[in-house]
Structures are given as C-alpha cells and as structure tokens.
Amino acid sequence: MPRQRHDPTKNLVGFLVGDVAYAVRIETVREIVNPLDIIELPRAPISVRGVASFRGEVVPVIDLRIRFALDAGGATRRNKWIIIDVAPKPKIIPHEPAPPPTAGRFVALVVDSVTEVFGTGGEAIRPAPALGTGDDLRGIEGVATYGGGLVFVLDVRSFNAVVDEALRDIPPSSAAPYGAS
C-alpha cells in the first residue's frame, strides 16, 4: 500500500473532551496512542494522572476532563492519548544562523476521542475570547470553524508549568529519558 503524503492544508488534529471540540496544531503531535499503564505521582497537580513510559521516555499524563473541570468519566474504547511536544520552538530570524534544534518535551493528553485531522480552509485561527477565571487553565490559543461548529485550538505551551510541577519531585536520574530523542 503506498504511503500517504502529508496534506499541508490539514494543520489541526481534532478531538473531543465532553461535548466540546478541541484541536492541537499537527506539528506538535508526536503520536496518538491507546492508554498505557500509569504510575501515580505524589503531590502532582490534580489534572496530572501520573507518568507513563512511552518509547523509553517518562511522559506526564494530563487528563483534560479534569483540567477543564468536568467529571472524570469512565474509560471507554474511544479514549486516546495524544502525545504532544510542548517544548518552545526557537524563533527563526531571517538572515541569521539557524538556532540549534531543541529536544522534545512530551506530554500525553487524555481525550475522550480523536475526531480527525483537518484544516481551517485558509481561514485564520481567531483569537480566543476572554472567558473569565480559569483562562490560564484552559490554555486556548484560538478558535477555528470546522464542520459548521467552533473548535477550540489549545496552546500546548500552556502545559509546561503543569509538567514542571508534576516532575518536580522525580530524581534527575529517573527523569533523564524525559525529553531525550
């Protein structure tokens, strides 16, 4: 079977949390997987279920239902983990030497289901509306329109503080694989 080529017009990976449609930019997605075994961490933020070993790396697992103040819900066959890279990307400046590549910093987002890979049809992602308290927890980069509805695009960089707090008490030797390529 011939390998499919990446369609540059499809730049978002869609998923559901509760009844709300969300997406992350496709360039931040490393992989979509079925849930793995989790090791709970003491004193971790409430939305962090724990950590998992994913391809030799220690990856924090963030439950978006809990982060968005929804009931925990039960595990189903449709639940997936979206492994995303939350490392800040270096700024590329024209006519300057390229910055060194950064090692990935991966997080697993627990979602109710993955919907599809889609694009915005050339339409720009609109700024997120101010929703009041909790905006920092939502981490919404903007809003796209797709399939006649609104899709909230998450700013994956907003998960860095959660990752830092979750991994704070893990000794450096056991966290060494985290972010290694």
Q: Care to describe what's here?
A:
By secondary structure, the chain is mainly beta. The chain has a single domain (12-171), classed as CheA-289, Domain 4 (OB fold (Dihydrolipoamide Acetyltransferase, E2P), Beta Barrel), CATH 2.40.50.180. The chain is 11% helix and 35% strand. The chain contains 4 helices and 11 strands; from the N terminus they run βββββαββββαββαα. The strands form 2 sheets. A 6-stranded mixed β-sheet has the order 8-1-2-11-10-9. It has a 5-stranded mixed β-sheet with strand order 3-6-7-5-4. Strand 1 (12-17) and strand 2 (20-25) form a beta hairpin. The longest helix has 8 residues, at 160-167.
- How far do the termini sit from each other? 29 Å
Provide the succession of SSEs: EEEEEHEEEEHEEHH
Q: Structural class given helices, strands, pairing? A: mainly beta
Radius of gyration: 17 Å
